[in-house]
Amino acid sequence: MIMRIFQVTVRPGKEAEFSEFFHETAIPLMKNTEGIVEVLPGAPRSETPREFSFVMVWRSLDALKAFVGEDYNSPHIDPAEAELVESRTIKHYDLVE
């Protein structure tokens, strides 16, 4: 299984707007995506008020590629969130069970 960690830093002043997108669109989308075993969404804390994250466990690399394409190392974002996001990172790991 593949663990995918996706982190987003939101543009200053866009926290509430991104939070709405995160809770109402992104979390339900990821939880209902074929090939995902588990989704752990992370909301900002006081020391990191503009950072959101997802830890996703994918059944396989093929399942991940079926969702994001061959370029799975690029942090893909929904066009609706593009103007809200300052930066994003993506990392992958083999899940240790």
Spans where pLDDT lies below 50 across 5 or more residues: none
Structural class: alpha+beta
**Which shape, going by the Cα principal axes?**
globular
Q: What number of domains? A: 1
Compute the average pLDDT: 92
Distance between the termini: 9 Å
Spatial strand sequence of the major β-sheet: 2-3-1-4
CATH topology: Alpha-Beta Plaits
Number of helical runs?
3
Strand content: 35-45%
Protein name: ABM domain-containing protein
InterPro entries: ABM_dom (IPR007138), Dimeric_a/b-barrel (IPR011008)
Pfam families: ABM (PF03992)
Organism: Ruegeria profundi
What does this structure look like?
This protein is α+β, with helices and mostly antiparallel strands and 97 residues long. The protein has a single domain (2-94), classed as Alpha-Beta Plaits. It has helices at residues 15-31, 61-68, 79-82, and strands spanning 2-10, 36-42, 51-58, 85-94. A four-stranded antiparallel sheet has the order 2-3-1-4. Strand 2 (36-42) and strand 3 (51-58) form a beta hairpin. It starts with a strand and ends with a strand.
